Amino acid sequence: MRALHALKLFLIKLSTEAVVLLAAATALTRLELCMTGLDCFGVNSLAVKLPDLQVLDISQNDAVTNAVMPVVGSHLRKLRDFQLEHTGVDVLGLGCLTSLRQLQEVRVCKRLVAAAERVVALPSTVDFTVVEAYCDGC
Asked: Model's pTM, two decimal places?
């Protein structure tokens, strides 16, 4: 599994054991785990073990909160594209990404964009992409 560079899982419930196995795939640079039931433990485990991730999609995982953001901000230094729409992350969590100098795009729900652009001092090269397709009341 170490030679795996990209993985996309959608609508598959990930167990703790599955997250541990994913974290062993140290060559991953792109990981998309949309609607997988991922939680803070899972994101923290992956961030610590997969420092070469450049693309991370953890969208549609309600149990992911601001608690993961310091770990993401300190371990995923190569992250360029971060998708976290429809998670429990808010503008305070986004503030933990300021040290990610390679970050180019952050995808969030529209409810976060205005506040994030005012409050969070991300590098000027970062674009906030608003995702509206599934935003019910965002």
From this structure: 0.86
